[in-house]
Amino acid sequence: MNDLLTAFEVLLAVYKDGAYCNLQLNKTVDGASNQAIVTRLVYGVLQKDVQLEYYLGKSVRKRPSKTVAVLLKLGMYALTYINSIPPYAVVNNIVDICEKYGKRQLKGFVNATLKSFDAKSIPLSKDKFEALSVETSTPLWLVKAYCKQYGYDRTKEFLSFEPCYDEHIRPNTRFWDMQQLKEALDKKGVEYVESIAGGLVVTNNSYIKALNSEGKITYQAMTSMLAAQAMQVEDGENILDMCSAPGGKAVYISELADVNVTACDIHPHRLQLIEDYIRRMNARNITVQYNDGVQFNKEYVDKFDRTICDVPCSGLGVAGKKADIYLDASMDKCIELSKIQYDILVNASKYTKRRIVYSTCTTLREENYNVVGKFVKENANWKVVEARQYLPDGNGQDGFFIAILEKV
Fold this sequence. Notes:
This protein is α/β, with parallel strands linked by helices. It has helices at residues 2-17, 21-28, 35-47, 49-59, 66-81, 87-100, 107-116, 128-136, 140-150, 152-159, 178-188, 206-213, 222-230, 248-256, 268-280, 331-351, 369-378; strands at 167-171, 192-194, 200-202, 217-219, 238-241, 260-265, 286-290, 304-310, 352-360, 382-390, 400-407.
């Protein structure tokens, strides 16, 4: 029961208390007899939440309390996707947890529900949007928004990719170049695939972790690298990174040319993350400053040659890797975020002489094309040079957006 109980306790904290699943898992998983199974159970339930919610609705007449609902979702996931735990053991353990959490009177209900549960026997909706929502475990509102934006077939394609848990890395070019990194990986028998950003997609292991700790490489998403490259920085320029934490883009930009980078964020702990990143990578010419991107800062006016705005966003493009993103997502929240994104972009335009790169790790035009489109419509002295929406490809590429703007 230990592994299922540990997974349940993590999930309960996520569903009931709004805990971040990765942080809660790290705090809890040490006591588990099989950490891999617990991790798979937690991430699996969260990734399949929409699907499990559908199964739950078809399996009970009245929705149970949140605690029992989480318990049933865990049981349904284990019965459907975990072959290493016998079905009888899943049911018995879930019933025992039900009693442990003070729901003794519901033991019979939980037992009967799980014993009669069979995912294959539950028919999908005849509505193609709802069916796709259940099949890909994506919220229905988002499926409809994607279908409107990309069409049904393209939406089904990218939503159907299984999450890729490999890491994207790049060398610290102050220490060695890509060829030297490849040779080192070859000697250790570490397989890798080159990415469109010029980094490497690898399966994480102790050697990769050690290289990262030593500052010889760093984990950096493709979107972060591509956004930094789009800046096309030149020696001697002053660069602003408006939403910098944890500091990956600022450090990478400082390696691309001999520039002076001002890296900003709004919380002390996030500023500390940037400082730690700089120290680990032995980076130079980076100044870390507190600055709220939404608030106009007159001291920054026309101070920078180029600015990167990797703005706060819904993160829908990385939902495959961050299983709890859908739990709190909504179109209303995306619209609210777009207002913040627009304000940051407007302020960036007042600080910047030449080029702005606007980027997000999301896949809805409400946070991407619409924000940039509104900005250039209302600011005739700026133009869009390039804008591109990337979608998940199942090979390590997340969903993200990059737009390049230049002063006219």
